[in-house]
Amino acid sequence: xxxxxxxxxxxxxxxxxxxxxxxxxxxxxxxxxxxxxxxxxxxxxxxxxxxxxxxxxxxxxxxxxxxxxxxxxxxxxxxxxxxxxxxxxxxxxxxxxxxxxxxxxxxxxxxxxxxxxxxxxxxxxxxxxxxxxxxxxxxxxxxxxxxxxxxxxxx
Length: 155
Description:
Layout: H1 3-9, H2 17-42, H3 47-57, E1 64-65, H4 66-72, H5 80-89, E2 93-97, E3 105-109, H6 111-127, H7 129-132, H8 137-151
Antiparallel strand pairs: 1-3, 2-3
């Protein structure tokens, strides 16, 4: 077990099966994140910005408050306000004040933001072949179940 991981980390053995499993998760996650970041950078956005656009697109045209965006992010960013500000500066997002609570600022994806998502989507969808080319449907479902077991106590 772990011949690819051993080769990748230039390590002949691991302290435990637990350590090997954790390292495999981290290496795999980094591999996928790096590929995602490559795609996003070609469109002038970061992975975090893509995530925010994806979230806002899912609730168009209403949008979300900052706290709602953070709670939906794959990797919650420490400063979502600045991330949203950069998206606003690029014209991908707009901000408005809630009618129900004038203190609440809502971010909403713009048409330009929707267009960049439309352009980037085929490239992002292609990244799923990282998993689909290596695992059959049963294995993919099993992988999801196993990974959720690792982080299920977070929610």
